[in-house]
Amino acid sequence: MEKFCASRKHLRGYRLAVSYLKHTVQIAALLTMPFVVDAQPLPLKKDNKSGILSIAYYTESANNSVNSLNSLLRKDSYRNKITTLNNPTNNELGFSLKNEILTALQPLLDKAKKTDGKKFREVVENLMSNQDEAGFGSLKKYLPAVGLFSTIISLVGNLVVTEKKVTKEDLNQFITRIQQYFSQYEKLNAINQQFSVQVHGLLEKITQTKEDLRDFLVECICTANKKVTKQSLTDISVEALIQQYYDPQKLQSWLDTAKLKNENLLYPPDAPTTVKMLTSSIKKLQKEFENVYSENYNSLKELIYSLRITIPNLDQEQLEKTSNDIERLYHDSRQADVINLNLVQVDERMHNVCRIINGGR
Q1: What does the mean pLDDT of the chain come to?
Q2: Number of structural domains in the chain
Q3: Which of the residues 37, 119, 120, 254 has an alpha carbon 20 to 30 A from that of 213?
Q4: What is the pLDDT of residues 247-284, one digit of tens each?
């Protein structure tokens, strides 16, 4: 996060520095105009039309890539799948935590005389079923509460106090039996919580990169069209800006009909550098996406291996199916990343901007 924030500050700082430098150069040019005119040849004219169109195609491609990654993170089947693994009522890990607890509880309830066994079971079931269904990315919907294990132990411990036939040894046996399952859920909980934090961090960086792209687009629009002010574009999204002002086809029509002098600059002078920095940010997002998903996938594989060798009477067939589903969804996400982000196109259009603009100088 700090690296991306620093990168964003660097990008904006760079643009301010360029603006200041331009102002300084203009003043110096006025002071030395006679000498410059006599001593220096006239600069080559730039191909403004090709330059502005190359930037338009780049911003379109860069925006599509950022949007694709954002959509993938928010609707990804892999992420949704691993979230549901921590649901204590399902058996996708080869066992159901809910069923294991109720099974271990039954011998104690069979000894109880004062306690309504049916109501006691309902209380325990509700603890595992009524999860918080907070919004996106919280992962709270299926994660057992941090104090769930201690809460259940406390409830069962009351049976030792109120029921003469329920002994401390009965409680210890209950704890020993369910603890092995809880320990696996705690590992999965930790894996998913880390993944959730990393995904949220990545989404924040996507937002920052999108804002940098928007700043650049506003600068480009205002440079090409002096009648448009930055203030008038403040609340307009990147998509709307492209559609209204910077769609390549609309720009081409405008260039064909507008009465422009070749000397009129139609794009910011620092466009090639800014485009390079934006491309670098997008590539970093894609790389971090790969690292976050790879780390999570490897952690889940280790957990599944641990389950196979530590828990007896595991439904190995169900666990194998879950393992295969996770692997398939993981590779599907990776493939979607390659296709949707289309970084090759972003890179090609970045180089095209630099070639056209820098080649015209």
Answers
A1: 81
A2: 1
A3: 254
A4: 999 998 888 887 776 666 889 999 999 999 999 999 99
Q: Give mean pLDDT, residues 52-74.
A: 92
Q: Please state the three-class secondary structure of 58-115 as a single string.
A: HHHHHHHHHHHHHHHHHHCHHHHHHHHCCCCCCCCCCCCHHHHHHHHHHHHHHHCCCC
Q: Which two tokens stand for residue 248?
A: 């390549």
Q: Is residue 36 part of a domain?
A: no
Q: For the residues of 274-319, what is the DSSP string, one character each?
A: HHHHHHHHHHHHHHHHHHHHHHHHHHHHHHHHHHHHHSTT--HHHH
Measured from the Cβ of residue 361, the count of other Cβ atoms closer than 10 Å reads 10
Element at 116 (helix H, strand E): none
Once rounded to an integer, what is the mean pLDDT over residues 188-204? 91
Query: Do the domain assignments include residue 51?
Result: yes
Q: What token pair was written down for 50?
A: 């090709």
Cα 115 to chain centroid, rounded: 49
66: in domain = yes
Question: How much of the chain, in percent, has pLDDT values that exceed 70?
Answer: 78
- The token pair at 158 is 């009351």
Domain that holds residue 350: 43-86+194-359
Structure pTM? 0.75
Write out the two tokens for 77: 């089947």
Label residue 97 exposed, middle or buried (CB < 10 Å: 0-12, 13-18, 19+). buried
Q: Please answer whether residues 107 and 320 qualify as being in contact, where contact means their C-beta atoms are separated by less than 8 angstroms.
A: no
Tokens of 276: 């390079």
Integer Cα distance of 225 and 232 in angstroms: 12
pLDDT beyond 70 at 202: yes
First to last CA, the chain: 37
Q: Which two tokens stand for residue 308?
A: 């196979």
**How far is Cα 196 from Cα 141, in angstroms, rounded to an integer?**
13
Under DSSP, is residue 360 helix (H, G, I), strand (E, B) or coil?
coil
Q: At residue 292, does pLDDT exceed 60?
A: yes
pLDDT higher at 78 or 341: 78
* Residue 6 belongs to a domain: no
Is the Cα torsion angle 293, 298, 301, 303 positive or negative in sign?
A: negative
DSSP state of 161: H
Is residue 216 within 8 Å of residue 59, measured between CB atoms?
Answer: yes
